[in-house]
């Protein structure tokens, strides 16, 4: 089974789950992310934790550090600096 969870951080003080899905929906989410240049992190443990959250739910405080590592990876790949996320919505996690 394939799963995907998408996070947004650009307009929120804390990353928020904006979409999640299993099987066909997960594949469609991944295809759309790829089509739009959204970076994808494959982290089964993080996915298991994020998939417990509801859409539109902020990530819990205990995931701040883990998600910050993923976001720092996205910053690095895109040549961004902290604060630039206010102008970018291309963040995703999947497995």
List the helices and strands and how they pair.
Layout: E1 3-8, E2 16-22, H1 23-35, E3 39-42, H2 44-50, H3 64-78, E4 91-94
Parallel strand pairs: 3-4
Antiparallel strand pairs: 1-2, 1-4
Give a description of the structure:
The chain is of the alpha+beta class and 95 residues long. It has one domain: name from scop. The chain is 37% helix and 22% strand. It contains three helices and four strands. The protein has helices at residues 23-35, 44-50, 64-78, and strands at residues 3-8, 16-22, 39-42, 91-94. It has a four-stranded mixed β-sheet, sandwiched between helices. The longest helix has 15 residues, at 64-78. The termini are close together. The model has no long low-confidence stretch (mean pLDDT 85).
| C-alpha geometry | globular
Could you please say which CATH topology applies here?
name from scop
Helix content: 25-40%
How many beta-strand segments? 4
CATH class: Alpha Beta
* Topology order in helix (H) and strand (E) letters: EEHEHHE
Structural class: alpha+beta
* CATH architecture name: 3-Layer(aba) Sandwich
Average pLDDT over all residues: 85
Which strands sit side by side, in order, in the main sheet? 2-1-4-3
Instruction: Count up the domains.
Output: 1
Can you count the helices? 3
Distance between the termini: 10 Å
Q: What portion of residues belong to β-strands?
A: 15-25%
The major pleated sheet works out as:
4 strands, mixed
The CATH fourth-level homologous superfamily: secretion proteins EscU
Radius of gyration: 12 Å
**Uncertain stretches:** none
């Amino acid at each position: 089974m394939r799963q995907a969870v998408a996070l947004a951080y650009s307009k929120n003080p804390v990353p928020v789950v904006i979409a999640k899905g299993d099987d066909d929906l997960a594949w469609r989410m991944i295809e759309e992310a790829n089509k739009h240049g959204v970076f994808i992190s494959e982290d089964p443990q993080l996915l298991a934790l994020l998939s417990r959250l509801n859409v539109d739910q902020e990530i819990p405080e205990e995931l701040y550090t883990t998600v910050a590592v993923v976001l720092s990876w996205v910053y690095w790949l895109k040549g961004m600096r902290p604060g630039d996320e206010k102008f970018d919505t291309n963040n995703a996690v999947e497995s």
